[in-house]
Amino acid sequence: MANPAEKPARRRGTAAEEARLAIEKAEADGVARSDMTLRMTLRDVSELKRDPKVATEDISFLGGAMTYLGVFVEPGGVTVSDLDRGDSGFRRGAAAEAAAAAAAPKPKKAASKKKAAAEG
Predict the structure, then answer these.
(1) Could you list the residue range(s) of the whole structural domain that residue 72 is in?
(2) pTM higher than 0.70 for the full model?
(3) Is residue 42 a part of any domain in this protein?
(4) DSSP string for 8-51
(5) Quick one: which of 73, 99, 91 has its CA closest to 19?
(6) What's the structural domain count of the chain?
(7) Which of 65, 72, 2, 5 is nearest to 39 (CA)?
(8) Residues 50-75: what's their mean pLDDT?
């Protein structure tokens, strides 16, 4: 039997509602929005972009960077969307840098002198 003093579990809202709630809670705790980073799954980023309830003033795509309510959005690289308050070792853009480094062509090794002499 459930304890009557326990709060019922809060139902999960849309990606925009969850992000807004986390941002407001962090701001109430004294964290500046410029220090925050929304680390979101690609699905949640897509949902946030398409949400008809999100005002155009709340979301921005200036300079190739997405922000929501003035907080930088880091798309992908996580399995669960979360708000980084700036107090962890997370570095913005690290996921994009790692993906670019993995996609970059790797230099080929030069043929050894023995192999070149055998072929020539």
Answers:
(1) 15-102
(2) no
(3) yes
(4) PPPPP--HHHHHHHHHHHHHHTT--GGG-EEEE-HHHHHHHHH-
(5) 73
(6) 1
(7) 72
(8) 93
